[in-house]
Amino acid sequence: MTTQQTHDQDLRELEALRFSARAARAITTLEMQRKTITREYGERIKKIRALILILQQRESIGQLGIDGIDAVEISPELRKLIHNPVGDLT
């Protein structure tokens, strides 16, 4: 094997190692994003459950029948979340 061939082989090996390192970083990025999205799903579920609890409480004291949904103040953000629970998650 000539010096040039050895050098070319070393360069190919280095390129493969760099690609492998890039692939490992890609996995790390995906795992971090998954954790972030999982936390966001949890927060969204918590907000929606809190609203359900409030509505159930109002219903149990008879206030929901009188005032309907107006018995509960629902923020625009929460209304948006109810209508599109997975919106803005990527």
From the structure above, extract its key features.
mainly alpha; 3 helices; 79% helix; rod-shaped
Structure description:
- There is one protein chain.
- This protein is an all-alpha fold.
- The chain starts with a helix and ends in a 7-residue tail after the last helix.
- The protein has three helices and no strands.
- The longest helix is centred in the middle third of the chain and has 58 residues, at 3-60.
- The model has no long low-confidence stretch (mean pLDDT 91).
Low-confidence stretches: none
Structural class: mainly alpha
Radius of gyration: 27 Å
Chain oligomer state: single chain
Helix content: over 70%
What proportion strand? Answer: under 5%
Number of continuous helical runs: 3
Described by strand count, sense and barrel closure, the largest sheet is: none
- What integer is the average pLDDT? 91
First-to-last CA distance = 50 Å
